Each structure stands twice: as C-alpha cells, then as structure tokens.
Amino acid sequence: MSQEPVRSANENSDEFLLKLRLEQEPRFERPGLTGDGAPSREAADHRLSRAQAPRLLIIGFAVIILFGTLLLKLPAATNPGVSISWMEAAFTSTSAVTVTGLGVLTTATDFSRLGQVIILLLLQVGGVGFIAFSVLLFRLVGRRVTLNERFLIQQSLGGERQFTLGRNWGRLGSVANLALYVLVVTVSIEAVGTLLLWLRWRTELPDGEALWLALFHAVSSYCNAGFDLFAGTGHPPVFGFGADYYTLAVMSALIVLGGAGVAVSYDLVSYFRNRMLALNTRITLGLTALLLVAGLAVMFLDRHLYEMTLAAHSVGEQIAISIFAVISSRTAGLTILPLEEVSQSTQLMLLFWMFIGGAPASMAGGVTTSTVGVLLISALATAKGRDSQAVAFGRSVPRETLNKAVAIMTVSTLLVGAVTIVLSLLNQGDIFALGFEVVSAFANAGYSLGFTHKLNAWGQALIAFTMFWGRLGPLTIVIALAQRERPSLLQYPEEPVILG
C-alpha cells in the first residue's frame, strides 16, 4: 500500500496539491525502458534479434548450399560417364543458391534431368530467399512468426526495415505478408514467362521438352541466375533460337522485373492509385535508364563489335543483341555475345555494369543502383556547396543512408581488389580476365571470359566465397563478424582531414 504524501510546514496549499497530483498520475514508460529507466526485456530481445539476424542468415544460406552439394553428388544427378568432385558440386551449388550462373561444368550436358531440377530448385530458393519459403511453411502449419524470424525475413529480402523500401511498401502490413507477397509475385511472373516462352518454343520442339526448357529459363531469367540448358548442346546461341526478337523480349522483361525487385514493382503498381513514387523507386528507374542508354552508346561506338563479332547479323539483330547484352550484364549473365571475342572496351563497360548491379531487395546483386545513386547525389550536392543536405526529387537523403552507401562501396571495392590479387597468385592468367570473373562472382552476374573452367580447386573455392559474400550483401558478413557497440553519448571534437 502506497503512503499519502505529507504536507511540510513550509509548503503552501498550492504546492502541496501539485505534489499530490504528480504522485497520483500514472508513470509512463519510454519505449524500450522500464519505469526506472532501465532497458526493458522487449528492447533487449529486439537488439538481440537484430544482432543475430545476419549470422543466422549466413548459416541458413550455408546449410542450403551444403544440402545442394550433397544432392548434386548423387550418382543420378549427373549423366553417365560424368564424374563430379566435391569441389565442383559445392561450386555449382553455391552458384545456384547465389543465383550467379558461373560454372565449372556444363549444365545441359553434364547434369541429368534430376541434376537440372536440383539446380532449378536451388536457384529458386536462393533467388526468392529461403526465409520467404519458411514463412510459407509456417503459415501452412499454423505457426506464428517470431520476432527473430521477422528480422531474418527483413534481412533476407534486402532491407533492415521494409518500410524504407518504398512509400507504399508499408501497406503490406507484417513482414510475414511481405514474404508471402514476394512468393506470389515471383511465382506469377515466372508462370507468365514460362507460358510465353513455351508458346514460342513449342513450334520448334516437342511440347514436353519445350515446357521444361521454358520453365527453366523463365525462372533463371527472373532470378537473374544465368543458368541455361542450350550452352554446349550445339544449338545456336540465345536459348537455341539465335537472335529471335520474341525470345529476347520475353527474357529482357523477366530480367528487368527481377532486377527491379518487388518493392519497386509494388510502388509502380500503387502509383496508379496515389500518384506518388518513393525516392528509392525514382533513383532505381532513373539510374536503370541511364545505364541502358550509356551502355548502348559505348557498344555502338565499338566498331570491332559490329564489324567483326556481330558481322553475320542484320542491323536489327545487332541492335536487339546489344540491348539484351546491356540489360543482362547487370546480373543476369545470359548473353548471345561471345564475350571472349568482343573488344576490351566493351568488356570493361560490362565489368562496371556488373559491379553496379540491380536494385536493392531484388534478385540482382552488385553494390545496387541505390548505392550508386545516393553516392552520385551526395557528390553533386558537395559540388554545389550543399554540404548539409543531399537532395534529389524534392527529398533529402538521410546522413545514415549516405554513410551506409560509402561503407558498401568501400567494402565492395576492397573485396573485389583483394580477391583479384589473391586469385592472380593462385592461378596464372591475364589480370583483367581474373578481375572480370571476380566482379561477375561478387555481383552474382554470371558473365565469364572463359577463365572459370581453368581455375584450380583453391581458385574455385575463392570464387565460391566471393559469390556467397556478394549474395548476402557487402555489409552482412562485416556486421555479423563485428562486435556491435551500444550508442555512445560521448561526442568527440571534430578535426578536418585533408582530401584530394
């Protein structure tokens, strides 16, 4: 039982009534704090879940890769007469789960139908995210998604908070609904892509074979995976149909949709209802268009490309092939172009485009268009003398976002440079070709200058590690390994540093 306040001798009636009112009013607690100012258990669990999410995500992807390796080592997974080592199985599994497309074996000729189905399932799980599939299973058995699992969903779908991905993204409600939305959209788009490709390919192939090939390539294209079942079979390039405009158009649409991500797609659909687009969507669309135009300009200026490499094609086919190559280069890895035969200027352009990659929270890899866009906005603001704010489309970019963009670019550049140097020490070869393979692995792009097949076991392991890191995100492993510190109230004095 609480005691009533006692009026002191030197306290007037008004002061006493005020004290009495304050004593009787309920004490409101700050979020995350108890009444005495100590951190609540919910806040502690909140911080613990955020700290554990990157580590659990790494473990989850590693388990899926290990499971895929065991499946690909099954005798029935390869064609008769084909032997596959543990390193080759692990490399293929990593490439599929990280939706990269680099391979040391030929998918169409070395793997049986069972092996191809295993690869298809691995790249589908890796593209959508195994956490999203877990949420679906939880819903089917009636189990609720825990706080820790909600953070895993957010981390696996590419963002710490789903509400930061788009202005209308919060309408989806819980992260469980977000994961289910991703699954529904993915399956729907892949089903439409499969149907469109099957309608075209059934004119040249038996219905059953055409359906299987259409399904495999629709999933591979939307997941930006780069695996195909025509390479090494003697068929013409581009899925066995040469420079077929219909096939190129369907594949390009699937790649663009997968590289844009569900957040951007949802924001675009919502635009017709509220006439507003998020800053993330505007940056993604703007930079995507800029990269397409700039990439085509570089290729059109490359006389060697059209006078030698594509000389046998008509002008219309040359333009279509160029557009598809630029679109696919940013993480899809499907191409008509024999990349070993194009000029080094085109190869360098493709390398930069792979490094940039696609949108965040999408099937694509790379440092993402948002990171590059934020850095360009910041550089433009600095050039204009607007040091305090980086503004684009009438919105200012938070300082925290700028710092994260710098961190992503720094870690990514250092990783690519370090892996290239180590790879050159382990394998003799042209340093540019090695760097091209490393960037392709980091960006989960799948483009290759033919050097991956020449790598020894150590080189394959290094490329597999790079694919794994690139798929998880440049900062995920750093955050998982680092010891998170509590926010400090201590402010240190600033001191200028000479730059440039």
Radius of gyration, Cα only, in angstroms? 26 Å
Q: What is the arithmetic mean of pLDDT?
A: 77
Arrangement of strands in the largest sheet? 1-2
Number of DSSP helices? 19
Helix/strand order, N-terminal first: HHHHHHHHHHHHHHHEEHHHH
GO molecular function: monoatomic cation transmembrane transporter activity
Membrane topology: Multi-pass membrane protein
InterPro entries: Cat_transpt
Subcellular location: Cell membrane
Describe the structure.
The protein contains 19 helices and two strands. It has one domain. It has a two-stranded antiparallel ribbon with strand order 1-2. It is globular, with a radius of gyration of 26 Å. The protein is mostly helical. The chain has helices at 13-24, 41-72, 86-97, 107-110, 113-128, 130-141, 147-156, 175-201, 207-222, 245-274, 279-300, 303-309, 315-329, 344-356, 369-383, 399-426, 431-442, 457-472, 476-481; strands at residues 390-392, 395-397. It is a multi-pass membrane protein. It is found in: Cell membrane. GO terms for molecular function: monoatomic cation transmembrane transporter activity.
Topology:
Layout: H1 13-24, H2 41-72, H3 86-97, H4 107-110, H5 113-128, H6 130-141, H7 147-156, H8 175-201, H9 207-222, H10 245-274, H11 279-300, H12 303-309, H13 315-329, H14 344-356, H15 369-383, E1 390-392, E2 395-397, H16 399-426, H17 431-442, H18 457-472, H19 476-481
Antiparallel strand pairs: 1-2
Helix pairs in contact: 2-3, 2-5, 2-7, 3-5, 3-18, 5-6, 6-7, 6-8, 8-9, 8-10, 9-10, 10-11, 10-13, 11-13, 11-14, 11-15, 14-17, 15-16, 16-17, 16-18, 17-18
Pfam families: TrkH (PF02386)
GO molecular function: monoatomic cation transmembrane transporter activity
GO cellular component, one term: plasma membrane
